[in-house]
Amino acid sequence: MRAAWRWAIAQQMDEAIDQSLEGLRWFYDMRSWFHEAQEAFGRAAEAVAASPDHDGKNRLLGRLGVCQGGAYFRLGRYEQSRELIQKSIAIFRQLDERAELAFALIALGHVALYQRGRDNAQQCYEESLALHRQIGHARRMVEALNGLGVVLRERGQYAEARQSLEQALTLARQINNRWRISFVLNNLGIVARMMGDYQAAKAHYQESLKLKQEFGDSRGAAISLNNLGNIACALEEYKEALKLHQESMALCKEIGDRMGVARSLNNLGMVAHEQGRYSEARRYHEESLALKLEINDQRGAIHSFNHLGKALAELGEPGPAAQYFRRALKSAMEMQAMPLALDALEEMAELLVKQRQVERAAELLTLVRRHPASEQRTKDQADRWLADLVFAAPQGKPRSLDAVVSELLAER
Fold first, then answer.
1. How is the chain split into domains, by residue range?
2. What is the pLDDT of residues 78-124, one digit of tens each?
């Protein structure tokens, strides 16, 4: 397949490139060969651009742009990814190519999820879903529903997220698309974990991992291994958690998945923290953050800000810890990542307790406890602190989340 692709490029056979494009994209996705993918699609785009004009030329350039943009996304090169996909979307709108436009919108939605564009992500997935319903393309409907589920999850709308993902899973099972079943299961597992149902999450992750391993999806397997490691950590099975995260990182390094490496470093830091190895946790999180900033993984950086703050608080550095929590809070609010914002608030409350600002800490903890977007783990932590605190009940109407956040971010 790869040899035929190179031959078609050398001969400027645009029709052959167009016919084999989808198969080659799947080939690279399944093997996680994203470096080679972006080079292969880039060379093809150059060849097609230099070829004589014909009716399908612009459409093919748009398709190649989406494929190359998708490879850049997997490599953590979000700006290049977004630029290519947006150009392709403009081409498809001009040509009124609804099927190609609908697929490109899913790709752009994925990029927006990892940057400051969650509203844009939702708009992309919703427009794509509507187009795919008109066309009757069930496989791509699964992708759009899955993307919507992730957006809703990241906003803390867990019931709505689960509903969208369950629709995606039902449809994926109806068409017997095991690759998409595996990814929807993984996202259902994340929702279950955030809602505190660890056994359901574990079952979803294990089924997802089994499918990914059966068809050789290294990147997908690494994601499931990381998620299983998070469940092991939550269940205080730290030896198993370390094993799973290390196995995931080895896979990510092997396939050049920098986002996956950053994720694994973050999770290894979480395990170290839970075991009381705070200096080691700090090193893991610093390395993870540096990589996330390099690849512009803005959502991932919020996790690192929070975890670095936690490590520094335990190491007796409350000032720097508070600054990291503020960075996490600011970025999370800008990205509408409410569960992450509430995590930061809970951690800031713990710092305030240590500084004997009990009433103020209680206000934050109560806000976190009552907010519907808080993860169950975050609510449980807030409950434990509130149970141990002695404080005067606040007078008057409770302040809003926005008012509390504005005050915290104004401090230095």
1. 341-412
2. 889 999 999 999 999 999 999 999 999 999 999 998 776 556 899 99
